[in-house]
Amino acid sequence: MSVKNITLAALMGSALAATSAYADIKVGFIGSLSSDTGLSTLRGAEMAIDEINAKGGILGEKVVLVKADTGEDVTEGVKAYEYLAETEEVDFVISGSIDDVSLAWLPRMIEYQIPTLDTWTSYVGIIDMVVEDPDAMAPYFMNIASDEALATLYINFGKDVLKEKMGWDSVVILAEDTAFGGAITGLVTDALAPVADIEVKDIITYDVGTVDFAPLFSKAQASGADFIYQISTVNSQVISSQYVKLQVPLAMTGVNVGAMGMEFWEDTGGAGGGISTLSPVPSVGFDMDPVSADFVEAYQARYTSRPMVPHFNGFNAYHGVKQALAAAEEAGGFGDVKAWSAAMEKQDLTLEKDGKLWLRYAYWGKDEVEPVTQRTYPHNGRFDLEAPYDTAQPSMVVVQWKEDGSVGVVYPFEYANTVYTLPSWVKE
């Protein structure tokens, strides 16, 4: 073969390789690559993509995954989304971002119009944006129940357990200074008193860099409240371990992201007993349906570093990526955003345990009114706020870590496998 023919063959090979690479469907992960939450989403996405590729891919094309690290920083989050959009030219984004970071890159999503699924962020204000501007927000989906739904069911926990069982009448809110902290504080303040008949004595806000919580616990105790409602998504293990080591004489419940992972006990040095937190499902201590149990088994066979059990958003990513790609197959790809969005709205996966609906991965319709809150949640993961939970799983469960290191679900009662108890140093 002549040099000319060799060169031509090489060029043709390069062109074919480039065409093949271009034809791949590219999924971009955005989130922290050094946090349990970020890694939960990343790994769930990896497992889903590998399963899909093993079956031949989507539309005859291989699915590839690229990553962009946010470091849980808003500025880096914007850069990460721009990188995925402009440099990697991804077709779809799977997000394990925390609320503040998602809010930072959201204008970029609207600009680029890239189909995007949030598996961790729960800020209801984003769903409000879908309501207000459905065209601009057509690419956006959130398959975790929004924080309003989380807080609504937690108010029921306040009424059914904290008020009726424990006899508590007042609370002091101890919340981090973040978008999530502010949103949950507002929801709890507006609803806990009128619905659960629990008075909010004081609201204490702290910086996420706080390392000494003793003065804050003293202020909480001085408020005269019966219990503490804490809201912590950053460095949650610090406030937890100090609460236990200081043996603060008030029960503490609320939202503690650290307590949502199986590493919580080790991270607190065994100082996590008594801590309870709401958690989307599946949570630690949650009874698994067969499909979820198989996912965890496959996950643990593949990954040997933390998190040893994925957070709920790992399950969200696993099922969500599959649903997003199934919607793309129906829509002929991700290019027609409105067609993909319409197909994504119809995705619906129901998982059963002992013949009963246990989990459901589906979305609220645009004009569908949720009966308890009497509002719409378009593009938000479906949830049920009332027993018997026969249309979907509850928006959250409350889990509690015991002083022996065990953890279980205490509420709603239909999903409970243990009961709420006071830590040994707190008097009734």
Write up this protein.
The protein is α/β, with parallel strands linked by helices and 428 residues long. It has two domains: 204 residues, Rossmann fold (3-Layer(aba) Sandwich), CATH 3.40.50.2300; 159 residues, Rossmann fold, CATH 3.40.50. Helices cover 41% and strands 19% of the residues. The chain has 13 helices and 16 strands. The strands form five sheets. It has a five-stranded parallel beta sheet with strand order 2-1-3-4-5. Helix 2 packs parallel to helix 12. The chain is globular, with a radius of gyration of 23 Å. It starts with a helix and ends in a 17-residue tail after the last strand. The N terminus is likely disordered.
In short:
The chain has 428 residues and is α/β, with parallel strands linked by helices. The protein has helices at residues 3-23, 36-54, 74-87, 99-112, 124-132, 147-163, 179-196, 214-222, 236-245, 264-267, 290-302, 312-331, 337-345; strands at residues 25-31, 63-69, 92-95, 116-118, 140-142, 170-176, 199-206, 227-232, 251-256, 276-279, 348-353, 356-362, 369-370, 375-376, 397-401, 407-411. The protein folds into two domains: 3-146 and 291-350, Response regulator (Rossmann fold); 148-285 and 395-415, Response regulator (Rossmann fold, 3-Layer(aba) Sandwich), CATH 3.40.50.2300.
Please describe the topology of this protein:
Elements: H1 3-23, E1 25-31, H2 36-54, E2 63-69, H3 74-87, E3 92-95, H4 99-112, E4 116-118, H5 124-132, E5 140-142, H6 147-163, E6 170-176, H7 179-196, E7 199-206, H8 214-222, E8 227-232, H9 236-245, E9 251-256, H10 264-267, E10 276-279, H11 290-302, H12 312-331, H13 337-345, E11 348-353, E12 356-362, E13 369-370, E14 375-376, E15 397-401, E16 407-411
